[in-house]
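Re: beginner question about structure tokens

> Can someone show what the tokenized structure looks like for a real chain? I only ever see the sequence side.

Sure, here's an example I had lying around. Input first:
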Amino acid sequence: IEGVTNVVLDQRRAAELALRHLVQLGHRKIAFMRGESHSSDADERWECQMTVARELKLEVPAELTVQIQLWASTPEMGFGPVNELVNRGADFTALVCYNDVSAFGAIRALVDHGLRVPEDVSVVGFDDIQGAAYHNPSLTTIRQPLQQMGVVAARILLQRIRGQATFPDAVPILPELVIRESTCPPGPGRARGKRN
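And the corresponding structure tokens:
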């Protein structure tokens, strides 16, 4: 909206943090879960991930991508797509999920197929919701600093009301990578996607 300043997460930086973490661990076969387009940031997040993947020279074949189909924000949103991914025999050692809730469902699907997280498949979420630290395994994720975003938005609003400053259309806020138990280096001879 013209004249409105948006406080937004730097999606490109988020993609760099997640993918560089996996690449530095040694992952090259990374699967991706794309958010449903009804979500306000799904398309931008996807485009940034694909841009960074190209920069890191990661191949992202169609068989390593899945699309969330559910509108409900429950673990089921990640369960179905990852079931599909494993059932098609995709060869991957890591999975980047659309958000933490979908990551919980993804982990359940992987476990149901006899795969261990992170020993067989490393999983990265997005948001750092409260339950991420208490999930088993605890979830490696991209933290959206929501409190900081709220403070920045309030400060901008007050300054605009007072006519103290002008601001751009968007003020990007940097995300943070929170490394927990759901990622580790891929091991030689480890199961990839389907259980051997």
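Each token stands for a local structural state, so reading them left to right follows the chain. The radius of gyration is 18 Å.
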